[in-house]
């Protein structure tokens, strides 16, 4: 009777070796020097609807900068009051 067929014995290469006994990335708490940052609260000086990149302080949110809203409202020659 013939012995059962087995795969030929090959030397194990480093790429195909068994995984190490301990994981490469252990599940440990965050490093104390770099704790997880909580979500930053919205800046109280900005309106809630303003995008973070819009920091002009304009009451209409993004767009015209604060204090310059009337700069271009009157087009044409100045009329005496």
Helix fraction, binned, reads under 10%
Please compute the radius of gyration using only Cα atoms.
34 Å
Poorly predicted runs: none
Class by helix and strand content? little secondary structure
| Strand segment count | 0
Number of helices: 0
Biggest beta sheet summary = none
In percent, how much strand structure appears in the residues? under 5%
- Average pLDDT metric: 59
Distance between the termini: 119 Å
Shape: elongated
Task: Walk me through the structure.
The radius of gyration is 34 Å and the shape is elongated. With 81 residues, it is largely without helices or strands. 0% of the residues lie in helices and 0% in strands. The relative contact order is 0.07. The mean pLDDT is 59.
């Amino acid at each position: 009777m013939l012995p059962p067929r087995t795969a030929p014995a090959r030397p194990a290469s480093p790429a195909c070796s068994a995984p190490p006994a301990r994981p490469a990335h252990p599940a440990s708490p965050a490093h104390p020097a770099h704790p997880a940052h909580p979500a930053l609260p919205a800046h109280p000086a900005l309106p809630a609807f303003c995008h973070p990149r819009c920091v002009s302080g304009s009451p209409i949110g993004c767009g015209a900068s604060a204090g310059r809203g009337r700069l271009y409202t009157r087009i044409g020659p100045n009329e005496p009051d």
